[in-house]
């Protein structure tokens, strides 16, 4: 059992999914019991591309079910990614960026629903494209948002 836990911890550490830092939130609906419904603003750095930070705003359910962690958040989200330093683009992204790579994932319900951010690389235009969307085991949502970061390092050198 101990070996399985160690392997699980190593596997989780090896994944390149970013962790978000909450920047702030605003209440959108009053709940008599439990926390209010909110829009939460979080930031995360791309775990594989130094110099890029993304800001994600998303809906978060309140009330008793939200406080207990069993509410299902809506699929509403917005994304803005910016160059925050010199961008270091690994060769594997330059060569395979069109396939997309998950860089962020947040559980938005107790079972099977997540908000994700996927990065693509547009080699022709030298641009990183970030897409956020929500998926569910059976049926996801067409709601999505994108943000682009042009790779220009001259001003950061």
TrEMBL record:
Domain of life: Bacteria
UniProt entry keywords in alphabetical sequence: Signal
GO-annotated cellular components: cytosol
InterPro entries linked to this entry: Uncharacterised_CreA (IPR010292)
Short name of any one Pfam family annotated for the protein: CreA
Signal peptide range: 1-20
The name this protein goes by in its record: Protein CreA
